[in-house]
Protein: Methyltransferase domain-containing protein
Organism: Penicillium nalgiovense
Amino acid sequence: MYKKRSEPDEDIAVDSTTHLPSLYGDDWQSETTSIGSSLYRGLEENGRRYQTLSHKEYLIPSDEKQFETYEAGHLVALIMDSDNDNPLFRAPVKDPKNILDLGTGLGNWAIDVADMFPNTTVRGVDLFPPPVKWMPPNCILEVDNIAEEWTWNEPQDLIHMRIMIGAFDDAEWTRIYQQCYDNIRPGGWIEQLEASPYVDCDDDSLPEDNILRTWGPALSACGKRAGRPLETIDMMQDAFRKAGFVDIHEKEYKWPLGPWARDQKYKEAGTVNYQHWMSGMEGWAMWLLCKFGAPEPWSQEEVIVYVAKLRAELQNPRYHIYERARRVWARKPFPEEIAAREQAEARAQADRRAQADMRAQAETETETETQTNERVYIKREEE
Ligand SMILES: C[S@@+](CC[C@H](N)C(=O)[O-])C[C@H]1O[C@@H](n2cnc3c(N)ncnc32)[C@H](O)[C@@H]1O
């Protein structure tokens, strides 16, 4: 097993001529979908609509406002990998038959992958029925709860997840990675892309006391209290390894927040990421703060006011801010690799045992020698 690490992008060069209003339009309103089924109606709470399939609440709303955020998140990920032949994933999958996207949201990723691989069956699954009007014929969007026992029969060439931060507690994550492992064919791949909830800044442009700096810690503390850690970005590698995956690779990113970067790719990514956050923050925070806010759960109005203040600060192009993101991909080993690994582990264990035995024997011999010497010494004393 080996692991390839990549350094995050270097400090991003700043464009000193950036002015905000010229870059952001107001065209982020999507049409409203009205569908009769009770799953589509969801559960209204604090002005947002949540899924009702799982008895366990999912923290992010499934409503039109949040779907705009999913679209924007998809675009940011694509722009950040636009210099790659395949901006959708990095796992070196050849001629895949089956690909699965867990927590597919609007199915953007699944649909794009289905377009890219017309002979592959691409399945996207989500708690909330994706309100999608058109799909390529090789794409299937399903409604299901991936925290429960999976029932797919086809071995997958690739299982993908993106922005599933805070969706599960630790035990659920372990089970999901185990089910990924069990459902991937030997030699197949898992890939996950996650972003951090913290607003980062490499220079002094974001003042220490800026409200944007409170966002990450506030949400992370709520996630902890809710038993849904938001540090998904930092736990994927280890979780993949524990589940049995090998060949673990990772790519770290800085997703700019705003159009402040000089480089065109970062400027575009930052512009879309700004929209991602502007449309997303209320939905990301509402459940967490209204249920687990400190010092006591917040009201809907308090969350709205907090998010309005954050939005106002986010509009300042003088803040060279970004969020960390990380993509990790890894392979399920072939049976002969597993056998070789087990043999190597058994040999290493036997070596360790033999060394421990030798050490114990050496200690016993030293002890006996010391006792004999002591006896000789005592005898000499007596003489
Ligand atoms: C933040 S969205 C990301 C959507 C999509 N992966 C993307 O990147 O555009 C997370 C999605 O995971 C889904 N989800 C959360 N828990 C789930 C579960 N237990 N089973 C299936 N889907 C789940 C949510 O409904 C939501 O659509």
Summary: The two ends are 66 Å apart (CA to CA). The first strand starts at residue 3 and ends at 4. Residues 340-383 form one domain. The chain has nine helices and eleven strands.
